[in-house]
Amino acid sequence: xxxxxxxxxxxxxxxxxxxxxxxxxxxxxxxxxxxxxxxxxxxxxxxxxxxxxxxxxxxxxxxxxxxxxxxxxxxxxxxxxxxxxxxxxxxxxxx
Length: 95
Prior knowledge:
Helix content is 49%, strand content 0%. By secondary structure, the chain is an all-alpha fold.
């Protein structure tokens, strides 16, 4: 005697993987606008962004203390990159 299976298991063995899964309802409350998502950052996320920006900017700025110091366009690029990283850290913490 053949074992009786469920409808999605025609032979009583493995589930039929070709059949589509049962539909599940998605709640409309999970969808939110992009404005709400940006303001829902946790404190840990903000502190991590602050540490990344300030630490990265400080590390890049420390290359100005090397002997011999960078000159010309290299010095300007280091200052601009470090300033951008510091601004990113402050922006991430405050906004």
